[in-house]
Amino acid sequence: MAELERSYLLELWSKNVCPNCGKEIPEGTRVGSGKKSEGGFCSLDCYGENYKADLTERHKRVVAAAERHRKS
């Protein structure tokens, strides 16, 4: 992850702002990995939307690995 993006996510974390939709995150409702450097989101929808490309790529790799395992 680029340093600039990490700094941006840390800044939004400290301000309780969702990096995906820009809404304020109410105290105690932040969603995410728990790592400040990966950001905190106001909902699972925003978390998923923000990491959609990454999650899609991970899914493809898991499906490919499962397929290779079935063929072995």
Account of the 3D structure:
The chain is an all-alpha fold and 72 residues long. It has one domain. 56% of the residues lie in helices and 0% in strands. It is built from 3 helices and no strands.
List the helices and strands and how they pair.
Elements: H1 3-15, H2 44-50, H3 52-71
- Overall shape: it is elongated
* Helix/strand class: mainly alpha
Number of extended strands: 0
Number of domains: 1
pLDDT < 50 runs, ≥5 residues = none
Largest sheet: none
Mean pLDDT: 92
What is the helix fraction of residues, given as a range? 55-70%
Radius of gyration over all CA atoms, rounded? 15 Å
Q: Ends: how far apart?
A: 35 Å
Order of helices and strands: HHH
- What percent strand? under 5%
Summed up, the helix count is: 3
Q: What is this entry, summarized?
A:
The chain contains three helices and no strands. By secondary structure, the protein is mostly helical.
Name some characteristics of this structure.
72 residues, mainly alpha, 3 helices, 56% helix, 0% strand
